[in-house]
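Reply to dn_fold:

You asked what the input looked like. This is it:
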Amino acid sequence: MEYADNGVTLSNEFERSNALSSSPKCSSLTRHPELWFIDGSVILQADTTIFRVHASILSLHSGFFRDMFSLPGPSDPSSSRKVGVNMNEELDGCPLVLLHDKSDDLASLLKALYYAGPNFGDNDAQDFRVVSGILRLASKYLVDSLRDKALSHLQKAWPPTLAGWDAREDRSRSYDSDLDPPNPIYPSAIDVINLAREVNAPTLLPAAFYDLSRQPFSQIFSHRTALSLPDLQNLALGKESSQHAVTSLIQSLGTSPQPTSPPPTYNYNSHRRKHSAGSRLCVSAAACRKDFSELVDLATQHYLMDRERGYADPLYVAEELGQLKSVEFSECEACAKTLEMWAARERERIWHMIPLWFRLER
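and this is what came back:
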């Protein structure tokens, strides 16, 4: 959105005052076209954009501004030092508050305050720019309600639960399938990690680190922004642990068969198994173990040697293995159910290990 006056002829009420037009400093400022209220009682400046808003509205929502406006007036030289902003100037008869923020971030915050809350999108890169700006300033200026709403929205894409992660991945795969070549819907996890560190939002970190660990380092290092050195070290350690987890996952599949309920198997039509409907026991343990061994070999070749999709994504590998047999169509219902339960347990275990892999629990 353009914030310039766009050459529109303003009414007398909106014409620049003598102070605004005569001061060299003020002549370079641009009024925000939407957030300039003629009855506003305070003017906020961010970059070269100015916003005339109401001190009462800011005080109602923001603990920071509530405290600031309760301090002595602009004539007191100590007031600006106490709050970290400059309130010793006036513009159009209103106190001028100089904020060290991006103008588009401030605009997003003010729009959310004035226009019945934030209107978030679908967590794509463009939406992230708006949400991150609101979260950044809501945290800085103690607008708790907006901070909570922004965090809740971001957690749909960077969830703290496995169920949330699965919903996120389902949406991502659906989005990718409509594009050629595939293009991720979500912004870079690097930006999410940096934002989470900046605003103290640790709930976003496990999903963001895990998502980033699935990318090769060549792609990570080519991003326009970078992680801090400590987070880069955490990423490297976690990425290594995640890849080892795929190997351990396949190995555990090969060492956990039970005689009465053997581990998951893959059907190569090398034999036929008979079972009773609803049977809880494998009726052909030897045949299932043979198929199971073939499944381990297949997974080793696919994920570890060929390094196909999933070799750095143990949650995906466990999900894939768990879906190789359907209870409805499997020739051995007991083995199919065992496979599903094994995969579900492993995925829960992996999810709870993620904060440890990336050294996030310190």
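Residues 1-24, 74-84, 257-279 have pLDDT under 50 and may be disordered.
Hope that clears it up.
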